[in-house]
Write a structure and sequence with these properties.
Blueprint (H helix, E strand, L loop, with lengths): L2 H24 L13 H10 L4 E4 L4 E7 L19 H17 L13 E9 L14 E11 L3 E10 L5 E10 L4 H6 L4 H11 L1 H9 L1 H6 L1 H11 L8 E2 L5 E5 L13 H19 L5 E10 L8 E12 L4 E12 L2 E14 L11
Antiparallel strand pairs: 1-2, 2-4, 3-6, 3-9, 4-5, 5-6, 7-8, 8-10, 9-12, 10-11, 11-12
């Protein structure tokens, strides 16, 4: 690799680290990313202690994140389930988080600014290596490779590929589209004036930085992180406020742990709620089959704030290929004035593992 390429690689990763620090200083410490060890605080800590986990390939123009799956992440969907494999919705949440960072660090042409934006569309596909027996367990290592396909004036397009670090097998692929409206202040703060913004953020983080320095040995052993994760494990993360007897309609109350760094409902929560009610619906109404979610197409239509009551429903069920596959349409709504507004709509394709012993994705 040429020296120019090496410099470019280090600059890309350094910008990412700077953005971790700035976001950590300006956003709540407790949010949905904590359950994946992917909050701004977690990422900043990893950047300082294990910078080699983040890399940029100048040839492919793609970022790679090395990531170990926490135990709690495999239990979010259903803490009582005997199968503690990471589900497709969990992988989708990981794709959501890493593609967002890949997009934010990518400067917008001409103005060289950066924006966060909001999700419009998030699609993921599970490969055969991600299915049940061959799926991911807590503690497994994966490589998340992120590419920015295009960044326009108000839209950003990314792709992602998740591989097993040991075998190199592709587990999941994803495509993420975000709406990125013009915001001159953010563009300048995260673009031309990024060094100044970083300095200002370091002052905001000063008290916590001093505490981290004084307790560096404890942080190295992970004791503080383990304490935080133990406290999170005690919380019920995805619990229905109410659900009907047919498991086709449920209500869900948004709490602080379900939010993203911007204070809105995290996209990962939406996809996990959809897989959860889909699992329960299929177990209730088609229990003789062993269903596994293999494809998820999610449209984000509006946001939801803390304390919002969400209405989750299985809007449609279609059998295909003589019950070797089925498709469910699931909607998440919230009440606004006297009307119901759709927050998220998903098309979920399930595969019956009894009839499909060996499933290979078309990709």
């Amino acid at each position: 690799m040429s020296s120019a390429a090496g410099t470019n690689m280090s600059n890309k990763v350094q910008v990412l680290f700077d953005l971790f620090q700035i976001s950590h200083a300006l956003t709540p410490s407790k949010n949905f990313g904590c359950l994946f060890n992917l909050s701004c605080a977690n990422l900043l800590h990893e950047a300082k202690t294990n910078p080699s986990k983040f890399s940029f390939c100048d040839r492919t123009k793609r970022l790679t994140f090395k990531y170990q799956i926490p135990e709690i992440t495999t239990k979010i969907l259903d803490p009582e389930a005997s199968n503690k494999k990471l589900s497709l919705s969990g992988l989708t949440a990981i794709v959501d988080i890493f593609t967002t960072w890949g997009l934010v660090q990518h400067p917008i042409s001409q103005i060289q600014g950066r924006r966060f934006g909001v999700s419009l569309q998030l699609d993921t596909d599970l490969y055969s290596s991600g299915l049940q027996e061959e799926g991911l367990n807590a503690g497994d290592h994966i490589d998340v490779e992120v590419g920015v396909s295009k960044v326009g004036r108000i839209m950003g397009f990314t792709t992602a590929e998740i591989r097993n670090s040991e075998t190199g097998q592709v587990i999941c692929t994803g495509r993420h589209t975000k709406y990125m409206p013009a915001d001159k202040i953010t563009e300048l703060a995260l673009g031309r004036f990024l060094p100044l913004t970083k300095i200002l953020s370091s002052f905001l983080l000063m008290p916590s930085t001093l505490r981290l320095s004084n307790a560096s040995k404890k942080l190295t052993t992970g004791s503080k992180k383990e304490q935080n994760m133990r406290s999170l494990k005690k919380e019920k993360i995805l619990v229905w406020k109410d659900i009907d007897a047919n498991f086709s309609q449920a209500t869900f109350l948004v709490e602080s742990l379900h939010l993203n760094e911007g204070g809105k409902l995290h996209g990962g929560v939406s996809v996990m709620l959809m897989e959860r009610i889909g699992n329960q619906y299929l177990a209730k109404n088609h229990s003789k089959f062993n269903w596994c979610l293999k494809s998820l197409n999610t449209s984000y239509l509006s946001s939801a704030d803390i304390s919002a009551l969400l209405y989750v429903e299985v809007a449609e069920f279609n059998e295909v290929k003589e019950l070797s596959e089925c498709i469910t349409t699931i909607k998440i709504k919230r009440k606004k004035s006297e009307k119901y507004v759709t927050v998220t709509e998903g098309i979920l394709k399930w595969s019956n593992l009894i009839n499909n012993a060996h499933i290979v994705s078309k990709y």
